[in-house]
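Q: I'm writing a short explainer about Amino acid permease for a general audience and would like to include a description of its predicted shape. Could you first generate the structure from this sequence?
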Amino acid sequence: MKPEGRQPVRAEDEDEQRRLSVFHLVGLAAGGMIGSGWLLGADDAFRRAGSDAYLAWVFGGLLMLLIAAVMVELGTVAPKTGGLIFLPLQSSGALVATVVAAGLWIFYAINLSSEAVAMTRGLSWKVHGLLDSSQALTLKGWGYALVFMAAISAVNLVAPRIFFRINSWLTVVKVIVPVLTVALLIAAGFGPHSPHASGGGTGKGAGAALAAVVGSGVIFAYVGFQGPLDFAGNIKRWGRGIGEAARLRRAVFGTIAGAMVLYISLQVVFTKYQASYWSPAGIEPSPYAQFAFALSLWWLGWLLRLGAVISPMGAGLVFAHALTREVAALSRAHLTHRGLQTARKASLKRRYDVYWLVLVVDFFVASIALLAVGGSWSSLVAITGVLTLVVYAVPGVVLVSLRDHLTGWSRLRRGAREVLARTGFALIALILYGAGWAPLWRGMATLAVGCALLMCLPILARWLPAFGRMYDAKVHVTLFRHWRTSPAAQAALWLIGHFAVLTLLTLLGDSSVRVLPKLLGGFLAVAAALAAFEGLVDASRRHMTEVAPMLPTPGTGRPAAAANAANE
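A: Of course. Here's the predicted structure. Afterward I'll give you a sentence or two in plain language.
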């Protein structure tokens, strides 16, 4: 009898039949990263950190590289499509997987609404009446945003081979536009006969730049590199050329490194030109379009107007598509409605491998989030930044917890990966603390709502037979009753407790309260994070002695032999 909540990993799994090349993987990573963040994030970062705003992009990029090193290592030794949810389930149990799933599901869904708002803003130069004087959505703007959300969802109904082709070539266009923008605006601003642009201003220091990493959308701009990791089980494994692990590393690390250079350059350009040419109340969808027209680079200005719609749409497509695979993994474990795991009923007169029901739920969640923040792009990306770091914190725990179940590591490599995992976990806590009270409490409140829904809806389904016929998921929240003896419950309590302590420390260190000195609060946040990490790892390892993990092996997609034997 198989353990509750575990599903065998099958080589013939419908999700993992398709093979993705490096071109497709880069299209997922860069397509997810280059959205609205590069268009709208520089202004907010400058207002928070002044001429030191470029440091926010440096800090954010370095953090993403560190986190990616852990996530890629896990994705190469245990490649699984939907692995961001599947692997925490294997290592730490259903409750930790539910917390991760709530954060991931909501931040992927919120991405749909934030990119739709960015598209609406990008069209405001042409269609009047979309924004009010404070750049908030009008009633007409709300209508456009909802239409854009529906359009992004609808494109995901095409056959996957067509989707990946569309996304990959769309990503090429999305990369060309900001690269040309940097090159031409730098040439215009630093050439011997360039027009004068007084930029710079006063820097506000590294602390302000650190706070801007979450609050101004820097993290939001870097989010998306995990797209290839969402499809780790689909990477091309045979034939000539490099192996699947090398393909994954090149796609992820190459995209992050390239994005760092691009984003830092864009911030430098904004800092130089903003004093002379930038007016947030202007009609242009992005500051770079204003700069281009002011410098008589008319064709670049028109290209940026087009990019202000295409870039957000492309990122929304990637997140909407990736979310279907992560929710499918959640559904297969019966942590949410089991009807979300299959594409068999999805049809446009053909049996396409799509998850239309997930897209409908995604649209509903995105609409609620958009309503809750009043259509504010900045509020959406701040919440997304918090939820992103919550989700990115867990793979390090999973990697260290699964140490004895993963093969092919030397002692030196294993030690290095464990150091990276602990360092990444602590730095994520420090970044969240540095973000400040306002974005952190909103993000944590959103996470709490998501966790409550995923954990309590199965109980409601038991109480109400009519609802139970529509929603079929296993009840796991009752594990908390056995927290003294259940390692899975203890792991979840360590994770939830870590977030609660971090939120409390952030409140005590907030400028409006100032009970705790900022520096001392940061030290305590890191110390508490390291303690929580060890508690999570210990509880997870004890959980795996009771329920052996079922992990795919590289190159086959099948469970490791040891895992199979343990579950027979």
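A: For your explainer, you could say: Residues 63 and 262 are 16 Å apart (CA to CA).
Q: Perfect, that's easy to follow.
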